[in-house]
Every structure is written in C-alpha cells, then in structure tokens.
Amino acid sequence: MSQITVSIRELKSRLSHYLRLTRAGGAVVITDRGVPVGRIVPVGPRLEERLASLRAAGQLQWSGRRLRAARPGARVRGRRSVARLLVEDRG
Predict the structure, then answer these.
(1) 18 close to 28: Cβ distance less than 8 angstroms
(2) How high is the pLDDT of residue 88?
(3) pTM
C-alpha cells in the first residue's frame, strides 16, 4: 500500500479509519500545518518469523547452539576499571 499524508485534526477525527489503513499495510504521515511530525506504520513481523524466512531463503545458517562468551578485546593494567579510566580521560 502507499503512504498517506494527514493533518492532526483529520487524524483525530478519523483515527479508526487510518488505523484500518495501517493494518492493511499502509503508512500514515502526520503533519502539523503542512510539516511532517510523525508516522504511523504497521508493526513488522516478529524476530522468529524474520529468522525463519531468512533460513528458508538460504541467507542464514545457524546450528541452534548458543555462542561462546567472547574474550575481552583489551585488558586494563593496575586496579582501575575501564569505567574509571573513561571518567578520568573525559575529565
């Protein structure tokens, strides 16, 4: 579906109509005196559904196992924490 532009006043008076259009797959751009201020868009598919479609299309492979914990990329010498070093560096 296409994108529809509507003023705040029109949206308030016909909200149910514009929500039906959004459920059907359209987007509604809300304007205030002709200036876009917001957009109502349909909710996308859940993460599990998106992953399943990527797997079905052959764009994703996963064994189903959890990933190993990553080792830290850097180590801090001394007793100060990384957070403390950042605060000192910014100050």
Answers:
(1) yes
(2) 87
(3) 0.54
